[in-house]
């Protein structure tokens, strides 16, 4: 049975065999606890330190002590937002975010509202999915302690102007956090250039293992631990470190920072090829998100007259998505797509294709043909003729 063409790299990426090779010893013979003082423990501790340095290089951190390992970007988002807010104002502050954030960010902000007396402002975005820095500035109040703006959107790929937003938050002493799970590994994420105080990343978005992520914590930024019980991760995240996964994260980070994977330019060219083929062959198809300031591999496409979920059912030979993998099965249209002005019907007619390092030119050509044929079979004859 032929494997489906994988065009869902924003949901997760395949584990690179070179990453697995570096993980295997720590799943078998190198089983020490990094908190132990004997030889096996010291070996595990050194492996964690090496991985921490590699992840620091991935995000552009000045020091590896600015990296806190977590179970993934979702936990990192909660640690960042809850931890920074409660450090600044344990009761009754204000947080600002955008209307198109990942649900993990929105949930963390909502928890502050529900349990800690906070208020929240969700700043709207334009039709391209960009939050304007002036709108962020207008949302700030004397009680604002955290602003959280996603670097690259997980559905439409749009990149936000974080450096401009940092120029607004920094003079006011407001902590700026970004969910950078999608942008890490594409040569887009440099925390020093962007000016953010906190950034969340995840290994499985860049050919590393699932279940491991990290929070970048700029030196001098203070947060309250959300998981206590031990002194691991400088007391900010208790629990025995997942050494094999941490090693895998470090290995994946090293691959994407050492040009050991295909370049973003190649991935962008494949994305553009698929985009052009589908726009030429599917009547009325439109691209969502910013046409230029977006992730290299992202293609969010609205196909009028079809139900995206039904189309995917007709495409067993393609692995793609109707939106964020976290929204699958909810039955509700994407909050990202409605925030940029799509109707509920248009949102339900939208597919997300995401190209990655393992995608080939043959994959693109074959996928375009399969999608075109499937859409043609679903549309009325009068639409196909037009």
Can you describe what's shown?
The chain has 386 residues and is α/β, with parallel strands linked by helices. It has helices spanning 17-27, 39-59, 73-88, 103-116, 133-139, 162-169, 191-194, 243-257, 264-281, 308-313, 335-339, 344-348, 361-378, 381-385, and strands spanning 5-6, 67-70, 94-98, 119-123, 144-148, 175-179, 198-202, 213-217, 286-288, 298-302, 318-319, 350-354. It starts with a strand and ends with a helix. 51% of the residues are buried.
Shape: globular
The overall pLDDT average reads: 95
Following the backbone from N to C, one meets helices and strands in this order, namely EHHEHEHEHEHEHEEHHEEHEHHEHH
Structural class, please?
alpha/beta
Number of helices: 14
Strand elements, count: 12
Range of strand content? 5-15%
Strand numbers in spatial order across the main sheet: 2-8-7-6-5-3-4
Poorly predicted residue ranges: none
Spatial gap, N to C terminus: 36 Å
**Radius of gyration over all CA atoms, rounded:** 21 Å
Residues in helices, as a percent range: 25-40%
Largest sheet: 7 strands, mixed
Summarize it:
The chain is of the alpha/beta class and 386 residues long. It has helices spanning 17-27, 39-59, 73-88, 103-116, 133-139, 162-169, 191-194, 243-257, 264-281, 308-313, 335-339, 344-348, 361-378, 381-385, and strands spanning 5-6, 67-70, 94-98, 119-123, 144-148, 175-179, 198-202, 213-217, 286-288, 298-302, 318-319, 350-354.
Features:
14 helices; 12 strands; 386 residues; three-stranded antiparallel β-sheet; seven-stranded mixed β-sheet
